[in-house]
Design brief:
It is found in: Nucleus. Helices cover 64% and strands 3% of the residues. By secondary structure, it is mainly alpha-helical.
């Protein structure tokens, strides 16, 4: 209830104080619950603890989206590590274990998708996504992508970090980057029959293609040094923003933070015109500025999303400003990796889940 009230307060200021009051009571109740547990093992075995951490994390993301939400992620990681050390007889029943598994996946996805922006070290390691990614290419609704795609995102980020630390030879890097690109292209959409009868196959397909196109753009910018002036980047951005437009026209607003961010930060400041196609063929095409479309989309998402729209908008606008100030860039600047130069330094602790 505390988190719901906090989200409501984004559009109705009357809920601000009730939300703060509910959060205070929730934290007090959590402390009381921990105090009633007799042993450390009981606290670690309690499946409600990571769920509480998850909602506290979401609250911090909505509030300011700074280092504080990362603190909850680290705390949950420590809790999960200690839980694995318990003997199996001390762990919860299967129904309770599902709560723990969901909280674990929530934090792991927050980690992997948000680190794309800043490139920091992972909290949930590669072994987690390797285990999770095998044979799981079906779409996870709340994540907006499959676990197989999340696996690829993780390895793209880590390959970029390894190159920056000069841990790989040029040949090894090129081979691994090419392998990741092939994996991205080989991912296939599964029709709605594989999703327990959930309707809206067209929207699901568009969402799948949107996320894959966005990850491909991220891959080229981070690993292949692509920039806004690269033809592939310009084409990908227009595809991403068009699909975003289509999903929003259809009333689908989830899973748009990462695609919108990736496209927005790589917009060409000298040529960002879009030609938006409407789902209704009777309506004419609409020519708009890419920056205008991004800002309008963020405004729409501000009332129906769980990521921090004001913080995301501020980061994007700051990156645009940095690009505008360097339109007459020199050769040394052009030789740098565009993502590492313009995006990563200004995107610390942003949440894109």
């Amino acid at each position: 209830m505390a988190f719901a009230a906090r989200h409501r307060s984004l559009t109705d200021p009357r809920w601000t104080w009730p939300a703060l009051s509910m959060k205070g009571r929730a934290v007090a109740a959590l402390r009381q619950r921990l105090g009633l547990l007799d042993t450390r093992a009981e606290a670690i075995a309690d499946p409600q603890i990571p769920v509480a951490m998850m909602f506290l994390c979401l609250d911090e993301i909505l509030d300011s989206c700074d280092h504080r939400w990362v603190i909850h992620m680290r705390a949950c990681q420590d809790w999960l590590r200690l839980r694995r050390q318990l003997p199996s007889s001390s762990r919860s029943f299967q129904a309770e274990q599902s709560l723990v598994s969901f909280a674990e996946r929530f934090f792991a996805f927050q980690d992997v998708i948000s680190r794309t922006a800043c490139g920091k070290a992972p909290h949930f390691g590669l072994e987690y996504w390797e285990d999770l990614g095998r044979g799981t290419d079906a779409q996870e609704w709340w994540m907006g992508c499959s676990t197989a795609l999340a696996n690829i995102i993780f390895r793209i980020t880590e390959l970029g970090r390894a190159r920056d630390r000069k841990e790989l030879s040029a040949d090894t890097f090129e081979m691994q980057a090419g392998s990741l690109e092939e994996e991205l292209q080989s991912l296939t959409y599964k029709n709605h029959q594989d999703y327990d009868g959930i309707p809206g196959d067209g929207l699901i397909r568009t969402s799948f293609e949107l996320m894959r196109e966005s990850v491909t753009l991220y891959h080229h910018c981070l690993l292949y040094d692509a920039s806004p002036s690269t033809p592939l980047v310009a084409t990908a951005i227009r595809k991403i923003l068009q699909m975003t437009h289509e999903l929003m026209e259809a009333g689908s607003f989830s899973g748009l933070a990462f695609p919108l961010f990736v496209a927005a930060v790589e917009l060409d400041p000298l040529n960002d015109e879009l030609i938006l196609q409407h789902s209704d063929a009777a309506l004419s095409e609409k020519r708009v500025s890419g920056r205008w479309f991004v800002l309008e989309t963020l405004q729409t998402l501000s009332v129906c999303s769980l990521f921090n729209v004001p913080r995301t908008r501020a980061v994007i606008r700051n990156i645009w400003t940095m690009r505008d100030l360097r339109l007459e860039e020199d050769e040394a600047t052009r030789a740098r990796n565009d993502w590492n130069f313009y995006v990563s330094p200004y995107s610390s602790n942003i949440s894109l889940a």
